[in-house]
Amino acid sequence: MESKRQQKVASLLQQELSAVFQRDLPHLFPGLPPGISLVRVSPDLGVARVYLSLLLARDVAAQQTLVEDNVKVIRQALAKRVGKQLRIVPDLQFFIDDSAAYAAHMDKVFGDLHIPPAPSGDDAESGSEDSKPQRPKLFADEDE
């Protein structure tokens, strides 16, 4: 469970990192800059785990390598933005968030399932009244 302070810092970092990617360092990312889906901060506020959403990127591995190679530049640009609000700018660790791709995959799997329709109510009513489902007997000496 994250503390309120961790949540506030994570929210601040998410906003400022997206601004850094879009405004301060657009030259580093050809095409679309990566989106930030989640930021988690350690309890001592020294490490931030940043989850990047690279849905529209053509080459995810190349984009990830590009981000990892420029961690120092990204952290410096972030420090200019949050230097007055945070005493220490946390170390940044970048991870790829593939939850949207996984959700699309699961949608496809569920869409491809063939589920036969349930038997209609007419079939169940055609039997006698005594064909109600029986309650299972839990004990041998149980009478109805």
UniProtKB/TrEMBL annotation:
Xref: InterPro entries: KH_dom-like_a/b, RbfA, RbfA_dom_sf
Keywords: Cytoplasm, Ribosome biogenesis
Compartments, record wording: Cytoplasm
One Pfam family cited in the UniProt record for this chain: RBFA
Predominant place of localization: cytoplasm
Gene3D superfamilies, per database record: 3.30.300.20
Keyword Cell membrane found: no
Swiss-Prot/TrEMBL GO biological process terms: maturation of SSU-rRNA
GO cellular component terms given for this protein: cytosol
Annotated stretches, region: Disordered: 114-144
Gene Ontology MF terms in the entry: ribosomal small subunit binding
Quaternary state and interactors: Monomer. Binds 30S ribosomal subunits, but not 50S ribosomal subunits or 70S ribosomes.
Family statement: Belongs to the RbfA family.
Function: One of several proteins that assist in the late maturation steps of the functional core of the 30S ribosomal subunit. Associates with free 30S ribosomal subunits (but not with 30S subunits that are part of 70S ribosomes or polysomes). Required for efficient processing of 16S rRNA. May interact with the 5'-terminal helix region of 16S rRNA.
Name of the protein described by the UniProt record: Ribosome-binding factor A
Gene: rbfA
